[in-house]
Structure formats: structure tokens, C-alpha cells
Automatic annotation (TrEMBL):
Gene Ontology terms: biological process: microcin transport; transmembrane transport
Residues of the ABC transmembrane type-1 domain: 128-347
InterPro entries in alphabetical order: MetI-like, MetI-like_sf
Keywords in alphabetical order: Cell membrane, Membrane, Transmembrane, Transmembrane helix, Transport
Membrane topology: Multi-pass membrane protein
Domain of life according to the entry: Bacteria
NCBIfam families: PRK15133.1 (NF011712)
Organism in which the protein naturally occurs: Mesobaculum littorinae
PANTHER family registered for this protein in UniProt: INNER MEMBRANE ABC TRANSPORTER (PTHR30465), INNER MEMBRANE ABC TRANSPORTER PERMEASE PROTEIN YEJB (PTHR30465:SF66)
Family: Belongs to the binding-protein-dependent transport system permease family.
Annotated protein name in UniProt: Microcin C ABC transporter permease YejB
Transmembrane segments: 9-26, 130-151, 163-189, 219-242, 277-304, 324-350
Subcellular location: Cell membrane
A GO cellular component annotation in the UniProt record: plasma membrane
Length: 361
């Protein structure tokens, strides 16, 4: 197992490097970089893309470019543009900037945001609790509902219960999370019908004055709708995976033998079948959490006005805040790769018979 983990850890380096190279290269051809954003603000131009007529933006411009190299920069002193380039590091060649960035990232020095007076790492830690709240609660609820439901569907395979629950699950899976979130807002957050849940934020304005029980109630009151919206599509995969895993195990000879010995059905299912059937479901918990954490956070956080990582990434991309974009990309890319290793370790924890050392790759 140790050799397998070492191989996986070593693979993180080229994988993460490839991710950063691709994304850094793409930004060299995207118009409207940070310097053009500042130019638009200085000249009151509003949308930075309004004046772009095919230029590649500051990221693509060579070091030491003149003011005319930037869309909307006509009339600004060249010295002003040169000062901006030096401040943002764009007076250096792209390769040098990339190598310098990766050297800093290897030391977990992510620099400071271009447009916020705060370090990237501090900014991430500030926004992280909101996204963890959505991802963790959505994953826990999805597992808490999907596993019992999947087992029930496997036991009653082909029955009316199995049929109508499958229909409900498929419909829920087909509904996009953002659309369901908008529906919840319209129905229960004062959109057109009932004002039952708050419209935005994770806590009320009087949070500090509430008792401990009041804080807990207020917290769950605020996360009810966004968690429901981010969980709606997670039930289908987990439920059907649980059902199919149980069906495969129930048909095996050891289950037939256990039933022939007269063991109670509950002991057969949860004493013998559960451990083998739940291997792939339980071991996949880390990857499911990361999937929910990344996939739904941007839209859900935007709809419910939650100040989390997803919304931070969206705003950084719009503003071309490169330190935030690349810093979060490196940070969460590393987390995703490590979680992949943790998922394999979960397989071994659930079933010690698995030996990854016997694998050649």
C-alpha cells in the first residue's frame, strides 16, 4: 500500500503542473486583462470589453508594451501603463512569470489579490466556510436518504414502490440545481408566494445577540433552501448505485446460504450484504463531497447571495484577478488530487482485502 500511495503522490506533481500550464496559457489569449480593467475604471468606460476589437489583452501583450497595446488606453500616458505593468509583473515574459508563480505556489505563497486589499490565502479561508457548509450538508443528506432508499428499492425490486420512486428520482435528477433554487426562492423566500425562509446569507443580522439554540436554529433556517437546491440531483446516482450494488450481492451464493440457515432477513442484509455492497458507495464519500463542493457552488451561491468560494471564483474571473484565479485553481486542484488518494484509502478501510500494491500502475 505504501508503494501505491507514493506513486499516486508523485503523480500529483505532473498532473497539477499540466493543469496550471493549460490554464495559464489560455489566459494569454483572453482579452480584458487586469490592466485593461483598471484602464476602464480610470476612464469610466464601464464594461472593459466594449473597447476590445480583437486585441488579446494585457496577458497576451509582450512585456513593456506601449499604451496603444491595450484596448481603451489611448490618451493615457505611456508611463502610467508601464507603472501598471511593473506593478502586476507584466513587464516580464510569460515564461518567467509562470515559473515565478509556480515557485511561489510550491511554498504556498499565493500573493495578494489585484483588486482586494487581502492575500489570496486569507481570502480563500474567509470564503471557505460557506462552500464547506453547502458541500458537507448536501453530501450528508444525500447519503442519509439515498442509502436507505437504495436498499429498500433493492429488496422490493420490481414492485410498485421501486417503480414510482425511480420515476421521482429521475425527475429530480433532470431538474438543474439552479432552476430548483429559483423555484424555491419564488415559492418560499418571498418571490411571489410565501416569505418563510431568508433570501440571502448564512446568518441573521442579530446573530451575536442570539442564544446558542437560537444560533443553531438561525443557521439551519438560512441554509435550508441552498442545501436543498444543491442536493436535488445528488440522490439519483447514489440511490441507483446503492440499489444495484445490493442487487448484485443479494444474488450471490453466500446470501442464499445465510438465508438457508434461517438467519433473519435484517441480519442477512445488514450483517452480510451491507459491508460488501456499500464498499463503492461509502468509499466514494470524499469524491462525492468534492464533486458537490465544486459543481454546484458557483450557481447556488450566486442565486442565494452566499459569499463563498464559487462566487469568489466567478467574480475573480470577471475581474481578471489572476492571483485569485490561479491561486484557487492550484489550491483546489491539489485538494482534488489528494482526495482521489483518500478515496482509495477508504476502499482499503472498508474492505482490507483490497491490495493496491498488486497493481502495476
Amino acid at each position: 500500500m505504501g508503494a501505491y500511495i507514493l506513486r499516486r503522490l508523485l503523480l500529483i506533481i505532473p498532473t497539477l503542473l499540466g493543469i496550471m500550464i493549460v490554464n495559464f496559457t489560455l489566459t494569454q489569449f483572453v482579452p480584458g486583462g487586469p490592466i485593461e480593467q483598471i484602464i476602464a475604471r480610470v476612464e469610466g468606460g464601464g464594461d472593459v470589453f466594449a473597447g476590445i476589437s480583437g486585441g488579446a489583452g494585457d496577458a497576451a501583450a509582450p512585456g513593456g508594451g506601449a499604451a496603444s497595446d491595450y484596448a481603451g488606453a489611448r490618451g493615457l500616458p505611456p508611463e502610467f501603463i508601464e507603472d501598471l505593468e511593473r506593478e502586476f509583473g507584466f513587464d516580464k515574459p510569460p515564461l518567467e512569470r509562470f515559473l515565478s508563480m509556480m515557485w511561489n505556489y510550491m511554498r504556498f505563497d499565493f500573493g495578494d489579490s489585484y483588486f482586494r486589499s487581502i492575500g489570496v490565502l486569507d481570502l480563500v479561508w474567509e470564503k471557505l466556510p460557506v462552500s464547506i457548509t453547502l458541500g458537507l450538508w448536501s453530501t450528508i443528506i444525500a447519503y442519509a436518504v439515498s442509502i436507505p432508499l437504495g436498499i429498500r428499492k433493492a429488496v422490493r425490486d420490481g414492485s410498485g414502490f421501486d417503480t414510482w420512486t425511480s420515476g421521482v428520482i429521475i425527475v429530480a435528477y433532470a431538474i438543474p440545481g439552479f432552476l430548483f433554487g429559483i423555484l424555491l426562492l419564488v415559492l418560499f423566500a418571498g418571490g411571489s408566494y410565501w416569505q418563510i425562509f431568508p433570501l440571502r446569507g448564512l446568518t441573521s443580522d442579530n446573530w451575536n445577540q442570539l442564544s446558542l439554540l437560537g444560533k443553531v436554529a438561525d443557521y439551519f433556517w438560512h441554509i435550508a433552501l441552498p442545501v436543498a437546491a444543491s442536493t436535488i440531483s445528488a440522490f439519483a446516482t447514489l440511490t441507483l448505485l446503492t440499489k444495484n450494488s445490493f442487487l448484485d450481492e443479494i444474488k450471490k451464493q453466500y446470501v442464499v446460504t445465510a438465508r438457508a440457515k434461517g438467519l433473519p432477513e435484517g441480519r442477512v442484509l445488514y450483517g452480510h450484504v451491507f459491508r460488501n455492497a456499500m464498499l463503492i458507495v461509502i468509499a466514494g464519500f470524499p469524491s462525492v463531497f468534492i464533486g458537490v463542493f465544486f459543481s454546484g457552488s458557483i450557481i447556488i451561491e450566486t442565486i442565494f447571495s452566499l459569499d463563498g468560494i464559487g462566487r469568489l471564483g466567478f467574480e475573480a474571473a470577471v475581474a481578471r484577478d489572476y492571483p485569485v484565479i490561479f491561486g484557487t485553481l492550484f489550491f483546489f486542484g491539489l485538494i482534488s488530487l489528494v482526495v482521489g488518494i483518500l478515496s482509495d484509502l477508504m476502499y482499503v478501510f472498508v474492505d482490507p482485502r483490497i491490495d493496491f500494491d498488486s497493481r502495476e500502475t
